[in-house]
Write a structure and sequence with these properties.
By secondary structure, the protein is α/β, with parallel strands linked by helices. It is built from 13 helices and 13 strands. Bound molecules: nicotinamide-adenine-dinucleotide (NAD) and glycine (GLY).
């Protein structure tokens, strides 16, 4: 078992990574301060893992709510249901919420914990690769609004993160690959050595080799924890670098309609677009661009948006991105593998040419 801290002073917390952690009560128990535990999960994950988690706790202390699967669950309507359940069961401030699932469950549970009775404890038990390497760490919580994804939320750090690698064995291949995209992201934005390791090991990750998964989840969480410790509330620009590929990716997701592509797939394609744009600007060399393309291809992630998408439509969606500040679009681009920058120093025509390279229109 690997353990390390997210260094945030009084809001700091441990991340535990290992196989079989759900069967070991000590990690959970150490971080439950009050008398009640309220587990949130979904219809796909609960039949697989809810019993194992509840078994670690005294039955009279535990309540649970099983939500529908899917991104649509991350809504204000679901949140209302969660609050009602907590209130009906007279859950007080000594209640710990426990997120058992992927990023959807983690985000909504965290936001419920941030807001219920002005804030209660919560614990993350991420069960997807994406949630283990990204969404469970760092305290970004929230729900979607009809006018935009993740638009209602709060920063609220968990008491701990318990990443049981055995959960990844029931994950669908496509979901696993979406998580690999976020892992590659850390190599690209700040860890060139990790990128080189991924070039040697990506097939082992896809084959769910235990050693490779342990290393990749650990190194990704370390990278994320360092970024969060440096810029918890995304004020200095450091944390914004975690959005490499996301502005391009969100445009693809929105233009396609949510649910067509997985978030990690859109981010993978977006990272390649960011790399190509960086090459156009003379910031990144062709050789690095080719290494990025080759690694994403070996991870079986998409390298271009679906043919039906037009460059113009993508550019319009990008302009609406929440990173458009004072009318100016900011993008995370690359100076090198392992060196990302948040910048508005590019012309609209460079962006247009990049999009046309991918959309051919
Ligand atoms: P998800 O939670 O929808 O999970 C993906 C699918 O895998 C779901 O069908 C889920 O039921 C299933 N699943 C989960 N664990 C499983 C397991 N062990 N075995 C089998 N199936 C399992 O999606 P996700 O990719 O985990 O997360 C995406 C969400 O995370 C998005 O809402 C995104 O906005 C959010 N996100 C948040 C942050 C953050 O910092 N808070 C960062 C990145 C993404
Ligand atoms: N996933 C982006 C962040 O946590 O800031």
């Amino acid at each position: 078992m690997i353990q390390f801290e997210v260094q945030l002073g009084t809001r700091g917390y441990p991340i535990y990574i290992g196989a079989g952690l759900l069967g070991e009560p000590r990690y959970l128990k150490e971080h439950i301060r009050g008398s009640r535990v309220f587990v949130l999960s979904n219809e796909r994950v609960a039949p697989l893992y809810l019993e194992a988690v509840c078994r670690q706790l005294e039955p009279e202390r535990v309540l649970h709510l099983v939500l529908p699967d899917g991104e649509a669950t991350k809504s204000l309507q679901t949140l209302e249901r969660v609050y009602s359940c907590l209130l009906e069961h007279r859950c007080g401030r000594d209640t710990t919420l426990l997120a058992l699932g992927g990023g959807v469950i983690g985000d909504i549970t965290g936001f419920a914990a941030a807001t219920y009775l002005r804030g209660v404890d919560f614990i993350q038990i991420p069960t997807t690769l994406l949630a283990q390497v990204d969404s469970s760490v760092g305290g970004k919580t929230g729900v979607n609004h009809a006018l935009g994804k993740n638009m209602i939320g709060a920063f609220h750090q968990p008491r701990c993160v318990i990443a049981d690698l055995e959960c990844l064995h029931t994950l669908e291949d496509r979901e696993l690959r979406a998580g690999v995209a976020e892992i590659i992201k850390y190599g690209l934005i700040r860890d060139a050595e990790f990128f080189a390791w991924l070039e040697d090991n990506v097939e082992h990750l896809l084959a769910r080799d235990a050693e490779a998964l342990t290393y990749a989840v650990h190194r990704s969480c370390k990278n994320k924890a360092e970024v969060v410790a440096e810029d918890e509330l995304e004020t200095s620009g450091t944390r914004a670098l975690l959005n490499l590929g996301h502005t391009f990716g969100h445009a693809i997701e929105t233009a396609l309609g949510y649910g067509q592509w997985l978030h990690g797939e859109a981010v993978a394609c977006g990272m390649l677009m960011a790399a190509r744009m960086s090459i156009r600007l003379g910031w990144l060399n062709e050789e690095a661009g080719e290494r990025i393309r080759a690694l994403l291809a070996r991870a079986q992630l998409p390298s271009a948006p679906p043919e039906a998408l037009q460059a113009e439509s993508l550019q319009e969606h990008m302009a609406r991105d929440k990173k458009a500040r004072a009318g100016q679009l900011h993008l995370v681009l690359l100076r090198d593998i392992g060196q990302a920058v948040l910048t508005a120093e590019f012309s609209a025509s460079t962006l247009k040419d990049t999009l046309q390279e991918f959309c051919g229109a």
